[in-house]
Amino acid sequence: MQRIPPAPPEHYTDTEVMADRPMFGQVMMQAPTASRAYRPFIEAIFAQLQLPPYDRELAVLYTLHIERGEYQWVQHVHIASAVMGVPQAQIDAIACDDVTNPVFSDKHRALFAFTRQVVQNVRVDDDVFEEMAKHYPMRELVETMFTIGSYMLLARISEVARIPPAPTAMGVASLNSALTKAGKI
Predict the structure, then answer these.
(1) Is 94 exposed, middle or buried (CB count within 10 Å of its CB: 0-12, 13-18, 19+)?
(2) Higher per-residue pLDDT: 48 or 179
(3) pLDDT in tens, 14-52
(4) How far apart are CA 161 and CA 154, in angstroms?
(5) Which residues contact 108 (CB under 8 A, 6 or more apart)?
(6) Residue 48 three-state SS
(7) Among 23, 71, 107, 112, who pairs with 135 as Cys (CB 3.0-4.6 Å)?
(8) C-alpha angle 158/162/164, rounded to 5°?
(9) In terms of residue numbers, what domain contains 148?
C-alpha cells in the first residue's frame, strides 16, 4: 500500500495541474520547493547531456536494478526498448545482473562496472575508473555520476513511498517533454 499520498491542491501553483503529473510527481510535490527545483535537473539528465542517450539508459537501468527501484525500472525498460532501441537481450541481461554478457560492448561493460561501484561503494577503484575513462571523456564520466545519483534518489523516493508502477506511457511522455523543452524534438 502506498505510504505517501499525492500532494494536496494547495501545493500547486495556478499554472501547475495536479492531474498532468503521474502519481510519482504528485508525491514529490509533497515537498514543492524541492520538487520544482529538481524538475529542470531531471529534464537536463533526460535531454541535455553529452553522454549518449543509449548509454545513459543503460546506466539508469543498471542503477535501478541494483537499487530495486521498481517504479522507475518499469518506466525505463519501456523507454530503453521503445525509444532508445535497447535490445531485449540486453535488458534481460541487466535484469539478471549479467552485465559481463557478450551482448554488451567493452564500453558498456566498463559503464556497468563503474555504475556498480558508484552505487554500492561510493568510491570507485582505480582500474574501474581508468577503464571507464578509456571509453568516456571526463564530461560524460561526470554526467554518468549525476545520472546514477539522480536515479538512486528517485528510486529511494518511490520505494519508501511505495508508489505502484504507473503505465509505461508516462515515462515516454516525460522524456518527450524534456526533449521538447531542450529543442530536440
Answers:
(1) buried
(2) 48
(3) 777 666 678 888 899 999 999 999 989 999 998 899 999
(4) 11
(5) 55, 58, 99
(6) coil
(7) 107
(8) 85
(9) 51-181
Tell me: the pLDDT tens digits for 48-65? 999 999 999 999 999 999
The pTM for the full model equals 0.90
CATH number at residue 169: 1.20.1290.10
Using an 8 Å Cβ cutoff, are 63 and 115 in contact? yes
- Confirm if 30 and 21 have CB atoms less than 8 A apart: no
In angstroms, the CA 147 to CA 184 distance is 19
How many domains would you assign to the chain? 1
What percentage of the chain carries pLDDT values higher than 90?
74
